[in-house]
Amino acid sequence: MGNRGPTLEDVAREAGVSRATVSRVVNGVRNVAPEIQEAVRAAVARTGYAPNQAARSLVTRRTGAVALVLSATGGSFTARLFSDPFFGRVVDGVLPVLRERAVQPVLLVAESEPARLQLVDYLRRGGADGAVVVPLDEEDPLPGMLVAAGLPTVLFGRPRPGVRCGWVDLDNAAGARLAAEHLWASGRRRPATIAAPVSAPTARERLDGFTAALAALGAGPVPVERGRFTEESGRDAMARLLDRHPDIDAVFAANDLMARGACRHLAERGVAVPGSVAVVGFDDSVAARDSAPPLTTVRQPVEEMAAAMTGLLLEQLDAGAPGTGAKVFAPVLVVRESA
Amino acid sequence: MGNRGPTLEDVAREAGVSRATVSRVVNGVRNVAPEIQEAVRAAVARTGYAPNQAARSLVTRRTGAVALVLSATGGSFTARLFSDPFFGRVVDGVLPVLRERAVQPVLLVAESEPARLQLVDYLRRGGADGAVVVPLDEEDPLPGMLVAAGLPTVLFGRPRPGVRCGWVDLDNAAGARLAAEHLWASGRRRPATIAAPVSAPTARERLDGFTAALAALGAGPVPVERGRFTEESGRDAMARLLDRHPDIDAVFAANDLMARGACRHLAERGVAVPGSVAVVGFDDSVAARDSAPPLTTVRQPVEEMAAAMTGLLLEQLDAGAPGTGAKVFAPVLVVRESA
DNA sequence: ATGTTTCGGGAGAGCGCTCTCCCATGTGTC
DNA sequence: GACACATGGGAGAGCGCTCTCCCGAAACAT
């Protein structure tokens, strides 16, 4: 706006000192006599001075803001964004870390391709010093775009191959092991699994982790069917599983939605859950709690991961260059009624 | 970051023209020969130039960004923020308007008092050109702070007295009238209402609108009990209502939560809804759809209001000064099962 | 052929700030 | 008393951009 407020010059005149001195007082004070500091502070208050961030950024090359980017390639994004508590948990993890460092958190949503371009442009121009990115789809091009633009970036989840940036992720294999051990401990000896497309690294880890853990426990070969992370595909996979292996007594699905689909199919077939077949999901999404029965599932420590992600970004900013630091987190088993 | 990319100067050298010409091409082109434009564009592409927003803002006094501020004074804010679809609807209304004008939307959350101060500071320094604010509490001090800082501001909901800024709001009286007429039309002749604290202007409008509409229809005096917008208080108010006026056949609550509380109490007392007593809520929040039975309620055209709010802000920005334009919207009755 | 307008493009002055010099004082040492 | 040496604070050079001038050349009118 044209609201040209008072400038350093004005405050300096008011306080009877030089511009440089006011600047020293306003920022980290270095070698300024206490009485002068007082005079300057008084002048600042009197004039209602607020530093011009543009001018400051021009010389410091810093904005003092960090972007929290929520990106998705699918449609009706905001509806999902503001109904899945997952994002709230991310925000809850990110905010305190930023606040503590007096860095302004700025939420950016990229709900479409044009939005994504505009967003990258904004950040390239210097809209924020770095970005903490939560991509909702594995194929989201945004992380790659940001990294290519030279922006310090940290992802929630592993980056696609070729994209060099920081990230945090869940130890998916460990999560699958938790599920396997829980099922085994509760006496299930013929478990199967509903995996997801091989293209998703996350899904492969969960599958491999599950079979490896069961092998270690002494189980035989584990029947596997693939879904596409949707409830419908989980339902279909369950049907195939049951047709081919009528004796299975447990199912581990690579996400909650598919687990829910599996439950639905089991209910349709009149198979008791967890009586005859136990079901374990993954993610602890809303779907898990709302299912019938409520799903036993593997939960990510989202707040912790988000906080760590933010920490990694701040490290990059302190270092003055994009980095590739990463952290892997341990999952937690949430036992509800389905297993 | 220290990523000092190419500057106008570099591009100018590359293209064999002056800084000014490159600037002309990069921004709205004015009087530049087509072949030179082409040369400049090629140079931009070759160098990977991105304008430095700080430098640009320093002279234009514009950032090209608008803040969408979500503010609340209560605790556990983000949990609420990311589970109530209301905010998703606001965002859905705001984004398209901003995108169309190539203005970068920036979401800011103010979940605590320190956060609020930091946010105002950020905006005063020139973090964005203006703010579209969604205060969740009537007593939220943030709008006042922003207006006092001279920032172009538009509120969702009427500002508190003394705060001069733009706003959009729902015609609450009209909404209450919709409820009254619906109840009357369905044969209810002894309606009561659960109002909210007199301090909330919104609530007063709903109460007055309801009683006025009923008076116009020829109804007798309307029993009134007050709640505090919570489910529990709605339940208690319903209990008092029923104790004092056992013959009532309809209840209009000033929000969905209280309506739900009322339903719960009616169920506890074994009173059929809507059989014996019809219940109408207000807001069409999640609570309305999830209630048993699903609530008939008065809905705000949130997306439309958010879009209008954004339009008002852009008008202020075009005018170059904060303004006080406002718009009032007509509510919509959503008939479900409770009335 | 000269004067007048139009149009394209360059020069250069800032925007408000930070930060590196550098100078003017004090303070300590022999 | 002469020297070194902290220490506080001012001067001024940019940071990268926009935008107002201004000038040269081409197009038109006289």
Automatic annotation (TrEMBL), chains A, B:
Entry protein name: LacI family DNA-binding transcriptional regulator
Domain HTH lacI-type: 6-60
Domain HTH cro/C1-type: 7-35
Protein source organism: Streptomyces omiyaensis
Entries under SMART domains matching the protein: HTH_LACI
InterPro entries according to UniProt: Cro/C1-type_HTH, HTH_LacI, LacI/GalR-like_sensor, Lambda_DNA-bd_dom_sf, Peripla_BP_I
Entry-linked PROSITE patterns: HTH_CROC1 (PS50943), HTH_LACI_1 (PS00356), HTH_LACI_2 (PS50932)
CDD domains tied to this protein: HTH_LacI, PBP1_LacI_sugar_binding-like
Keyword Transcription set for record: yes
Molecular function via GO: DNA binding
Transcription is among the record's keywords: yes
Domain of life where this protein originates: Bacteria
Keywords: DNA-binding, Transcription, Transcription regulation
